[in-house]
Amino acid sequence: MVFAMTTNALKGMLRDAHEHGYAYPAINVSNLDTGIAAMAGLEQAKSAGFIQISVGAAKQAGPTGDPVEGSIILGRTLRDLRKAQHVPIAIHTDHCHADMVDAWLVPLLRELKVLKDAGEEKIFDSFMFDGSHDEIHDNVATIRRLLPLVRDVDGVLEVEAGGKWGGMEDGVADKAVFSTPEDVKEIQRTFEDAGLTADDYLLAVAFGNAHGTAVVPDLHPELLSEIAEKTGERNLYVFHGGSGSPDDDVRAAVANGVVKMNVDTDTQYAYTAGVDGFLTDANGVQRSHREGKKFFDPRHWNAAGRKSMTAKVVEVAELLGSAGRAEAVEYRSVLDPVVA
């Protein structure tokens, strides 16, 4: 069976996670091999999840470095890979900072609308705008501008609130701060004005997170529940910077409303560790043109990288509580009909 990943299906997945207290792995990928590894991990874990690409991955995926072109090339590849899976998988564009909105996200959404109108099957299911580095009025102004474009392609929007984040991602580095209920409320009002409820979008807030590898993340997951209580909305929270976080903090974040956790650094490390281990075991033979083909052939070391990354994705799904849920009857009931 192949799951039909419509907008209603994606929103149903998110509601189910919130109501049953678990979260989905959201795994960043950059090419065919990491895409295969990530989807294999979700499949092995019997977990739904997100496969997502950053602007850096999009630039690398195309022959000219154009992130719009690269997004469509890599997105189509992931869409076709998904057809071989038996768990629900959403394809997502990750972390579009404000300075890339008009260079990446807006033209991508417009191109996707052209493709949709021409009859092409949907490529992306959700899109992320990161306005956390903007003042709140600029953040919500961009959200208002993006919402009709996202609606035109039947997508779900993920946004970020409040201050700056710790760590580094796509060349942007900051010291961590914490989101405020006031900023979150402004974002909530923006969606309400567009006729949307808290079940219709994803919200990332800063609770001590660090993008990339945190030195020692100062996480306060209880802030998530406090914001929900003070704003009167339950919020479908996203945990950005999940890599390297203590397991107890991850579980606490999920208990406080997180339904999606982004993982990039940990899976990158796992992939490269698999390749490194394979070449270390080759003991230098890979440098021999005559004798080393079974080691220098990229198909072999890529396979080792895939295997290691897949195992890490399974581990993440188990930590988040999503493992095994793709086969549950009550889980399937929130999804649109599947296609045989």
Automatic annotation (TrEMBL):
Residues annotated as binding Zn(2+) 1: 95, 211, 240
Molecular function in Gene Ontology: fructose-bisphosphate aldolase activity; zinc ion binding
Catalytic reaction(s) noted: beta-D-fructose 1,6-bisphosphate = D-glyceraldehyde 3-phosphate + dihydroxyacetone phosphate
Keyword Cytoplasm: no
UniProt-annotated binding residues for Zn(2+) 2: 130, 160
E.C. designation(s): 4.1.2.13
Stated role: Catalyzes the aldol condensation of dihydroxyacetone phosphate (DHAP or glycerone-phosphate) with glyceraldehyde 3-phosphate (G3P) to form fructose 1,6-bisphosphate (FBP) in gluconeogenesis and the reverse reaction in glycolysis.
Listed InterPro entries: Aldolase_TIM, FBA_II, Fruct_bisP_bact
Cofactors that this protein relies on: Zn(2+)
Active site residues per record: 94
GO biological process, one term: glycolytic process
Alphabetic keyword roster: Glycolysis, Lyase, Metal-binding, Zinc
GO cellular-component term (any): cytosol
Protein's name in the database: Fructose-bisphosphate aldolase
Pathway: Carbohydrate degradation; glycolysis; D-glyceraldehyde 3-phosphate and glycerone phosphate from D-glucose: step 4/4
PANTHER family reported for this sequence: FRUCTOSE-BISPHOSPHATE ALDOLASE, FRUCTOSE-BISPHOSPHATE ALDOLASE CLASS 2
Cofactor comment text: Binds 2 Zn(2+) ions per subunit. One is catalytic and the other provides a structural contribution.
UniProt binding sites for dihydroxyacetone phosphate: 212, 241-243, 262-265
Family, per entry: Belongs to the class II fructose-bisphosphate aldolase family.
Superkingdom of this protein's organism: Bacteria
